[in-house]
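To illustrate the input format used throughout this study, we show a single complete record. The first block contains the structure-token representation of the backbone; no residue identities are included at this stage. The design step must infer an amino acid for every position from geometry alone.
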């Protein structure tokens, strides 16, 4: 069983909204390259950036941080 981490949850939500990484970057004020690294779980994320992403993606920070098992 795999656990879906923060990066994949951000990517999934972004795609649900029909946005590119550049769209999310423009909306959140976070560089596209940083969003790419976050989505790949290749970069830790600071609390203020997590909040910006949650607001931009129209979800709570709790939702983003919820680690659910993936079948």
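Output of the design step:
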């Amino acid at each position: 069983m795999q656990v879906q981490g923060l990066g994949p949850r951000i990517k999934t939500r972004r795609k649900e909204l029909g946005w590119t990484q550049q769209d999310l970057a423009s909306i959140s004020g976070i560089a596209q390259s940083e969003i790419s690294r976050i989505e790949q779980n290749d970069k830790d994320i600071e609390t203020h950036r997590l909040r910006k992403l949650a607001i931009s993606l129209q979800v709570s920070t709790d939702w983003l941080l919820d680690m659910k098992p993936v079948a």
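Structural context for interpreting the output: The mean pLDDT is 88. Strands lie at 2-4, 68-70.
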